[in-house]
From TrEMBL:
<comment type="similarity">
    <text>Belongs to the eukaryotic/archaeal PrmC-related family.</text>
</comment>
<dbReference type="InterPro" id="IPR052190">
    <property type="entry name" value="Euk-Arch_PrmC-MTase"/>
</dbReference>
<keyword id="KW-0489">Methyltransferase</keyword>
<dbReference type="GO" id="GO:0008276">
    <property type="term" value="F:protein methyltransferase activity"/>
</dbReference>
<keyword id="KW-0808">Transferase</keyword>
<dbReference type="GO" id="GO:0035657">
    <property type="term" value="C:eRF1 methyltransferase complex"/>
</dbReference>
<keyword id="KW-0539">Nucleus</keyword>
<keyword id="KW-0949">S-adenosyl-L-methionine</keyword>
<protein>
    <submittedName>
        <fullName>Uncharacterized protein</fullName>
    </submittedName>
</protein>
<dbReference type="GO" id="GO:0005634">
    <property type="term" value="C:nucleus"/>
</dbReference>
<dbReference type="GO" id="GO:0032259">
    <property type="term" value="P:methylation"/>
</dbReference>
<dbReference type="InterPro" id="IPR029063">
    <property type="entry name" value="SAM-dependent_MTases_sf"/>
</dbReference>
<dbReference type="GO" id="GO:0008757">
    <property type="term" value="F:S-adenosylmethionine-dependent methyltransferase activity"/>
</dbReference>
<dbReference type="GO" id="GO:0003676">
    <property type="term" value="F:nucleic acid binding"/>
</dbReference>
<dbReference type="InterPro" id="IPR002052">
    <property type="entry name" value="DNA_methylase_N6_adenine_CS"/>
</dbReference>
Length: 265
């Protein structure tokens, strides 16, 4: 079933001066979600992809899908991806939390959900740290105590390789540059999410501790980010990870990586 791209006609050029406008990296993530839509609704197992451009029709043994209750998008921007996910899931009572460090993006996300009749919960915050009180109800709960809560996690990160100082300033300013400036390898925030504290100091509280058993994580990357290495790192965290979609878009070679946590973990 084809899912229409959310209407963004309510957003203007004034909005896009401060918030990332959906582009090919957005649309490849929409396509990856659409091709897995039956699994995302808990209607069928997650398919495996032997070719990253065409579904193989096979399945991951022991990785059935489940009906999600808690979905989170990091860096929601315009709200296009969160709203698209809401259209896939329908009215199934799943909570969709849409996090962004940019207050203008939080407002755009709210407006996009409303314009498309999708209920979103936009949150102003940095990565997953902003979920402590929203998910647990406690301001001071340790990460270890809230592990395994997220059924579906989406992240189209700032992936453009930039000087470390530029990336740090972009995150500090919480403006549009924070949507693309990714640090020296374009993976600074991805490193933080996957390994808890980045490459140099790996934490026991990595990406797998946030995912519920049977939970799924979708990540956008470009060739300069070394997607095979990202897949390997996710696998080392105990997840079933693979590249599920890739395509060229101008000078960029885009990838979507999917990582699944086994239900019996």
């Amino acid at each position: 079933m084809s899912i229409p791209t959310p209407s963004l006609s309510h957003l203007t050029s004034a909005d896009y001066r401060h918030v990332y406008e959906p582009a090919e990296d957005t649309f490849i993530l929409l396509d990856a979600l659409e091709q897995d839509q039956a699994a995302l609704r808990g209607e069928a197992p997650f398919p495996a992809y032997t070719n990253a451009t065409v579904a193989s029709g096979s399945e991951f043994t022991g990785l059935p899908a489940k009906r999600p209750r808690l979905c989170v998008e990091i860096g929601s921007g315009s709200g296009c991806v969160s709203t698209f996910l809401g259209k896939i899931l329908g009215r199934n009572n799943a909570a969709i939390l849409s996090i962004d460090i940019n207050p203008r993006a939080v407002d755009c996300t709210r407006r996009t959900g409303k314009a498309n009749d999708v209920h979103l919960e936009p949150i102003l915050g940095n990565m997953l740290s902003s979920l402590k009180s929203r998910v647990s109800g406690k301001q001071d709960q340790d990460l270890a105590e809230q592990q395994g809560l997220i059924d579906l996690l989406l992240f189209n990160p700032p992936y453009v390789p930039t000087p470390e100082e530029e990336e740090a300033l972009a995150q500090q300013d919480a403006g549009i540059a924070g949507s693309w400036a990714g640090g020296s390898t374009g993976t600074r925030l991805v490193d933080e999410l996957i390994d808890g504290r980045g490459l140099e100091q790996t934490s026991v509280h990595g990406i797998e501790t946030y995912l519920s058993p049977g939970g799924a994580f979708y990540l956008v990357a470009i060739r300069q980010n070394d997607p095979p290495a990202l897949v390997e790192r996710l696998q080392k965290r105990g997840l079933e990870a693979e590249i599920v979609l890739q395509r060229r878009a101008g000078r960029e070679h885009l990838f979507v990586i999917r990582a699944l946590r086994r239900i019996n973990d």
